[in-house]
Amino acid sequence: MENQEPKLTSASLLNERTEKIFRYLNAYNKMDVEKMIADFDDEINFQNIMNGEKTMELRNVEEFKQQAIEALSYFSEREQSIESITHSHISTEISINYRAIAAMDFPNGLKKGDEVNLSGKSIFEFSADGKIVRLTDIA
Known about the structure:
- By secondary structure, this protein is an alpha+beta fold.
- It contains 3 helices and 6 strands.
- It has a 6-stranded mixed sheet, with helices on one face.
- Strand 5 and strand 6 (132-138) form a beta hairpin.
C-alpha cells in the first residue's frame, strides 16, 4: 500500500493539529520560546502581515527563535486567545484576540504601559509528518 497523507476528516489529525496550536499559544502567552518552537519544522517559514503589507519574514527555526527572544522585551504581558478554528487540507486558521502591555516606548507612538488590543488570524500549515512548516500572522 502506498504512503498516504492522513485525511482531513480524521479526528486524530484534527486533534493533533489543534493540540499543537494550543501548545504554541500557551507557550507564547507564557513567553516560553523553546516550547513555542517545539512543533516547528527546522525550515519553518514565518510571515507577519499588518494592514495588508508583509512586515516580517523569517525562513528557519533559528531566525524565528532569535526574533521571538528579542520580542520578549517588547511587552510586559501578552496574550493571544482563540475565537475560532477552521481546518483545511494542509492548514488550520485561527481567529485570535491579542492583548498586550507595552514594556517600552515604540517609534509609532505607543508608550510604556499602554495596552494594545488587536484581532487577527494566524494560519498554521503542516507537513505530512505533522510539523508546522509555515506560520502566517495577519492583523
